[in-house]
């Protein structure tokens, strides 16, 4: 193994600062890509897709659970998949292992669900074995084929206006590797993180950065705001939050 050179603390910090410039460029480029996603056209979903869930047959709009946005990951858990009937596919299982507490996504009016071809008893058994808690539905029709996830995994984002549903984004292959955090999922949605520093179209819902954060068991509780969000001109230059769009 050919290792990098051994450096002094001063030289190590200089190298880190040099790399940090490039890393910040990547961060800003990622922000710009997310802003472009928020301007993607919306594709109407008019087909009456049906899923089996723990409480019976439901439609696509029901998967939103009353929220504005929906993210659906197609996981391969079905006969013929390596590991069946005890496991889902290895890659899909790794993605499932990365899912955190969904209360944070829900607080941004967004629901995340998994969907597979396996029946509900099989899904419940594997979820219990692996310690997974996300909502997980059974595909009963052409949903997977129609949305590009019939032969490979992928993640679709949707938004609804009342009972009308629109497809807003799709990502698969290595793009799924970056998913798993609240931030990565929100960045692929039509509304984004909904924070006031984001470059979003006029009228999109936004609130002060960080102000909406909460303990996952305390969303909805009435409590004093924990973060004082000053005007852009009053921000400390060492404030870790991204600048607002108008700063």
UniProtKB/TrEMBL annotation:
Region called Disordered, residue ranges: 221-247
InterPro entries per the UniProt record, alphabetical: DUF899_thioredox (IPR010296)
One Pfam family this sequence matches: DUF899
Basic and acidic residues bias locations: 232-247
Top-level lineage group: Bacteria
Identification of the protein by name: Thioredoxin
Gene source species: Mycobacterium paraense
Organism taxonomic ancestry: Bacteria, Bacillati, Actinomycetota, Actinomycetes, Mycobacteriales
